[in-house]
Design brief:
7 strands, 17 helices, Rossmann fold, 358 residues, alpha/beta, single chain, five-stranded parallel sheet, two-stranded antiparallel ribbon
Length: 358
């Protein structure tokens, strides 16, 4: 079933204005960011409507050849790195930064808009702060973020845009329970998966959104033959990197601000909820549907880790030449060193101690 409201002129503009009303408004210092989003939606509205007119029914009728491969794991566990490595194989398609910024227009606009935007980013030295690298619109991106940019009311990313109301979005759409929310989220999620696969010529999708770690049961309802790759990282590293992640969010893309103690509470609560849900729900998966790997193994010996994934999931030959080219080109990235007080470490261990008993 299509979201019929999306055919209304300037639907994304009305949706973001509605979200401002629903989520306690915006901060005065965030007006420039909010204005940027509004201008983007207004300028690209003719392309959005044209893309709807030309492709909406085709996408709705399109059938996936295979259920997706879902990359799961808490935020900052290495999911993006794994997504990048898996997407090197041209048998698969995945979302890029360009796709999640322009999910409503990328079929019409990617061929002529992405290249000049990339050049502009390079000229201006715009960073992609989330990954601590220069901005490149071909970098991997999250499907959930694309849902938000599409104007779906069922994306938890609204909680990143309006972080004062993040607990509402987390409880509603990450640890998702209400049947109406499940239906709406799956409808919009499947629509985007089909759209990206359709645009790629029918390739199998590799989907990465960390919130899926808590939504395995719902995904298997819609995609019974889906496969899942779970990546695990040291919890203290995840905690510290998630703090950094939230600071980038509140600095660069959100419409509200958070204090440091609020960010720490969000990270602690989210990790506990997501990981508890994962441990409870993986029992529904068949052995051939789930692979669990460690971040350290992926970074220390990526070829062996990817080969293990390909072998267990029967994905064919590993594209070794392409993989090796990537590692030759790739600049060595220095490990970020974090420090925590003893009090903070005790708080983390106390909050997450229940996970060891699940």
């Amino acid at each position: 079933m299509l979201n019929v409201l999306r055919i209304l002129p300037f639907y994304p503009v009305w949706m973001i204005l509605f979200m401002v009303f629903k989520n306690r408004g915006i901060y005065l210092s965030k007006v420039p960011i909010f204005t940027f989003f509004l201008v983007r939606f207004i300028l690209l509205e003719p392309f959005r409507l044209t893309e709807l007119l030309l492709f909406e029914r085709r996408i709705h009728r399109f059938q996936l050849k295979e259920d997706p491969i879902f990359i799961i794991g808490h935020w900052r566990s290495g999911t993006t790195h794994l997504q990048h490595l898996m997407s090197i194989d041209d048998k698969y398609a995945t979302t890029s930064v360009f796709h999640f910024l322009f999910p409503d227009t990328f079929i019409l606009c990617e061929n002529w808009l992405k290249k000049p935007l990339n050049k502009l980013c390079k000229l201006l030295g715009i960073p992609y702060s989330f990954q601590r690298v220069p901005m490149d619109l071909d970098l991997p991106g999250e499907l959930e973020s694309a849902m938000c940019a599409l104007g779906s009311p069922y994306s938890y990313t609204w909680g990143h845009m309006f972080p004062k109301n993040y607990p509402y979005w987390k409880d509603r759409l990450i640890t998702i329970k209400d049947k109406k929310d499940v239906k709406g989220w799956l409808r919009d999620y499947e629509y985007l998966i089909k759209k990206f696969s359709y645009a790629s010529g029918g390739k199998r999708m590799i989907v990465k959104s960390p919130g899926d770690t808590a939504r395995i049961h719902e995904l298997v309802q819609r995609f019974p033959n889906a496969q899942f790759i779970y990546i695990e990282r040291d919890p203290i590293e995840v905690y510290n990197s998630s703090i950094y992640f939230w600071k980038v969010i509140t600095r660069e893309i959100s419409f509200q601000k958070l204090k440091d103690d609020q960010i720490k509470r969000y990270v602690l609560d989210t990790y506990l909820q997501v990981m508890s849900s994962y441990k409870e729900k993986i029992v529904i998966l068949k052995e051939e549907q789930l692979i669990e790997i460690k971040f350290e193994d992926l970074t220390n010996d990526p070829l062996s880790t990817i080969s293990y994934i390909y072998s267990k999931f029967n994905l064919g030959e590993v594209p070794m030449d392409e993989m090796n080219k990537l590692f030759v080109k790739r600049d060595p990235q220095q490990k970020t060193v974090y420090s925590n007080t003893n009090e903070e470490l005790c708080k983390i261990k106390e909050t997450w101690s229940t996970l060891t008993t699940l």
